[in-house]
Amino acid sequence: MGRKIWIFDTTLRDGEQSPGASMNADEKLKIAAQLLRLNVDIIEAGFPVSSPGDFESTVRIAELVGDKAVVTALSRAVDRDIDVAAEALANAKRPRIHTGLGVSPQHLVHKLRISEEEAIDLAVHAVKHARNLVDDVQFYAEDAGRSSYEFLARICEATIAAGASTINIPDTTGFNMPDEFGARIKYLMEHVAGIENVTVAVHCHNDLGMATALALEGVRNGATQVECTINGLGERAGNTALEEVVMAIKLHGEELDAYTDIVAKELTRTSKLVANVSGIYVQPNKAIVGSNAFRHSSGIHQDGVIKDPSTYEIITPESVGATDSAILLTARSGKAAVAHKIEEMGYTLDEEAFNAVFNAFIELADKKKEVYDEDLEALVEEFSRSVDSAYKLKSIQVSTGYPLTPTATLCLVDREGEEHIACVYGTGPIDAAFKAVNEIIQAEHELIEFSINSITRGIDALGEAALKIRSASGKIYTGRGADGDIIVSSTRAYLNALNHLVSDL
Ligand code: KIV
Ligand code: ZN
Q: Does 403 sit behind a cis peptide bond, omega within 30 degrees of 0 on the bond before it?
């Protein structure tokens, strides 16, 4: 079986640092619940001192997770950060404080402006301070990939002696070649006193597209914890993708002397959820979870796969939960079939949310002969979030064309059943529709991201709009909408985000 490799998921912390990926506490909770189904060992819930939102989500994730996984919170090597992290983890059953500082010349000289000796003192102080608050402390040596071997070994040894139970060696800038990173881990394994009593973790970024290779070389040379994110989200070019490292260990476990406890069948579902929630879509050719990962296009390949899938598939789609989107649901599918499908996709809806999704499904199935899993998933994402909306879309009519001035006539219904109508022109049909919404819901905000994607194939495919707005207080709200008409899906997405904003006012 080999060595157990602890999978440390940092989608909710480093992943959320991806530009445009910020998530609110409810969204993070949804992802945390799915990470538990995936059976990750450690969930990095956030960086509590960085914002009240991060603090709140860490508290709630710790409560949700219970003893099913370790919950960790990030801090700099600063007493206040560590105190706030401990406070956020107060109700965690298995709390871990993750603290550390930069160790490369670039970080010591330019960022921290301290000597190596001062860095060791700060690191030791931080670990001891954290150990006074929790039993499980992880030290990170930021930018270890560009530090000197000798200094890295000294700071690791000092923090182990101070009480750290995990030593995290990040290639923060993704600078190393895989063999070089592996040699760095090997050096530490051979030169750091006490390292045999702690867990050695690797945390690799993807700046040269080698994050997964770096992490695997770390494992080959002694690391037994890999830090990673779903879909490889993370700062800049992202982190090691969880799905890639897990499947590589599955396929090459023997030579790596390693295994993980991840439930691989949950990988596709987790990837989709994270893409939906973060609004960062997965490139089609992404390993393991891209939409093309199991599609064969050329005649030669198709011929091979028909004769035997092993000719071109090293992983079966079923093993990662990528069952092809069969056309199962139609207008004649009853509630039981739709409920079963939703459950199979991993969603748990209360009765009110289910009825909202089912009504939207019937409306869609009347217009579209073939309802795919992805269509239903888009409806679940949109309608299960909007049942308690302050405003619902009753109707929208847009006239547009050349040389017409695009004009939208919109009717929203509030909770009391009162109708609000606005008729507004704009520079384009979507601009007109959004301005009409703004005339009715007057809440200060700016639209910061907006995209429309076709969910499935064919001319009648659903268009899914995803957007983010920023409120006057700086909070970010996401909205999603799916419909055969992109003006309707965009308006629904906008309304979805604004409903969340007004519910916070
Ligand atoms: O990339 C990095 O070094 C980090 C640390 C905070 C662990 O994210
Ligand atoms: Zn990182």
A: yes
Is the minimum distance from the CB of 382 to ligand 1 under 6 angstroms?
no
Q: Are residues 341 and 477 in the same domain?
A: no
- Do residues 369 and 418 share a domain? no
Please work out whether the CB of residue 140 comes within 6 Å of at least one atom of ligand 1: yes
Proximal ligand: closest to the CA of 240: 2
- CA-to-CA separations, 348 to 125, 268, 271, 354, in angstroms, rounded: 45, 17, 17, 9
Ligand 1 center from residue 229 Cα (angstroms): 12
Distance from C-alpha of 416 to C-alpha of 46, rounded to nearest angstrom: 38
pLDDT value of position 457: 67
The ligand 1 atom at the shortest distance from the C-alpha of residue 14 is: 8
Tens digit of pLDDT for each residue in 85-116?
999 999 999 999 999 999 999 999 999 999 99
State which residues form the domain around 364.
Answer: 335-385
Distance 242 CA to ligand 2 centre (A): 14
pTM of the model as a whole? 0.84
- The model's confidence at residue 324, banded by pLDDT at 50, 70 and 90, is low
CB of residue 294 inside a 6 A radius of ligand 1: no
User: For 203-215, what is the mean pLDDT?
Assistant: 98
Is residue 156 within 8 A of residue 122, CB to CB? The reply is no
Residue 3 Cα to ligand 2 middle (Å): 24
- The CA 65 to ligand 1 mean position distance, Å, reads 23
**Phi, psi values for residue 71, rounded to 5°:** -115, 130
Atom of ligand 1 at shortest range from CA of 74: 6
The proportion of the chain whose per-residue pLDDT surpasses 70, expressed as a percent, equals 98
Tell the residue nearest (CA) to atom 2 of ligand 1. Answer: 172
pLDDT band of residue 73 (cuts 50, 70, 90) is very high
Range name among 50-59, 413-422, 467-476, 492-501 with the lowest pLDDT average: 467-476
Quote the number of domains for the chain: 3
Sign, Cα dihedral of 151, 209, 281, 341: negative
The Å distance, Cα 254 to ligand 2 centre, comes to 28
Per the domain annotation, does 328 fall within a domain?
Answer: no
CA 172 / ligand 1 centre spacing (Å): 6
How far is the C-alpha of 84 from the C-alpha of 90, rounded, in Å? 10
483 lines ligand 1 (CB under 6 A): no
Of 278, 304, 323, at which residue does a domain stop?
278
Q: Which tokens is 477 given?
A: 């709200």
Residue 303 lies in a domain: no
Cα–Cα distance measured from residue 32 to residue 145, given in angstroms and rounded to the nearest whole number: 29
